[in-house]
Design goal:
The complex is a heterodimer of chains A (about 110) and B (about 120). Chain A contains no helices and twelve strands. Chain A is mainly beta and about 110 residues long. With about 120 residues, chain B is mainly beta. The chains are: A mainly beta (about 110), B mainly beta (about 120).
Amino acid sequence: AQKVTQAQTEISVVEKEDVTLDCVYETRDTTYYLFWYKQPPSGELVFLIRRNSFDEQNEISGRYSWNFQKSTSSFNFTITASQVVDSAVYFCALSLYRDDKIIFGKGTRLHILP
Amino acid sequence: DSGVTQTPKHLITATGQRVTLRCSPRSGDLSVYWYQQSLDQGLQFLIQYYNGEERAKGNILERFSAQQFPDLHSELNLSSLELGDSALYFCASSVAGGGQGYNEQFFGPGTRLTVL
């Protein structure tokens, strides 16, 4: 069975600090996709990134970076120089090549304190 | 704006009632997915329709049903509502039917259901 675990339920950091959100996934499929979504207080789901299982290159987008390691089944997300606007719930998610449903982790609520 | 619309935005009703949530996919998308976000269960997949046919089923209760109409909009019907059905219900759409690789899903803004 497929599973996504976000062990950190809630994190608080002071603005400008770096913060890493952990994500561990489980699947026996060899082809799959990993995602991060942001859910701000307004409630909508904002797509941040997708990675396929064959692409272990790390990615950086502005203050955001992602570290994908198949060896540890992890897909961690780092925010550098955090800002108050980064406060949100962040979801790590998984989908398989052979079907479309997205399996979400429980989410990590991130508080950036001014 | 993802191009996926959901109505209503908010819905407040009482236990035992029945409600219908509506989703209009992006133009050209044939698949519609429903997800439920509740405090207990988190965000979970309920059901997928592709071009009018049910394609995949997740943890959807028997009291819940969905359909996709010829114009491709979808409705999620929730009946005999219980307090625990209070949740944010998301609809997503995609071009293809799935099972053949990455098929990007675009999420709507959600319908917040409160059962009193």
